[in-house]
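Changelog-adjacent note: as of this version, every example in the card shows the full chain rather than a window. The one below runs 198 residues end to end.
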Amino acid sequence: RRRLASVGVLALGAVAAIVVSARSDSNYVRQVVEWASDDSYTEYVAGIFEQFVGDIQRGAADTRAFARIGGTSVLIWTIDVATALLVFLAFGLDLALVSLLAVGFFAVSVGNLAKVIPGPPGGVGIYEAAFAAIVSTLLPVSFGLALGVAIVDHIVKNVVTVAGGAVSMTWLNVSLTEAVEGKDADLSSERDALPVDE
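Full-length structure tokens:
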């Protein structure tokens, strides 16, 4: 359980580094990533984080945009937590409502933040591990039951994500193949632009 709970701590630390970097001129994200390793993949990961931090900086500079983004994020995370709570109730757990709300909010938040850690697509496995570790530690629930709740919760959310994505692609007339090919071309151009160490 301690190892699984450390996933949540690591995710929170990564987000803290991103936020601190976004609010200053120093590039803490690249420093941390390059401290871990110095190979070409690390350079690629650092570039992705830098782009993310840049997006945060641009959003923070515009008060209206920041408020709109923040409000939308809170709404989406609230729906995310409500889904998890409904799954808890579906499992027939007899828990105090206040405890369930508090731990549910924390577990979903840590589970989502854990997806910052590079891993399988959709954070499958990482989300479940972090969620189950938090729930089984803070509530009188076995790890196995907490893991079952996490798996069902994540399946429901991923089904909605895939279905919503398919509808959006159809409505916006977006080709997944063209989008992937365009992204690959952009990444190839970025790699070619990187300086080569001799």
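Structural remarks: The mean pLDDT is 76.
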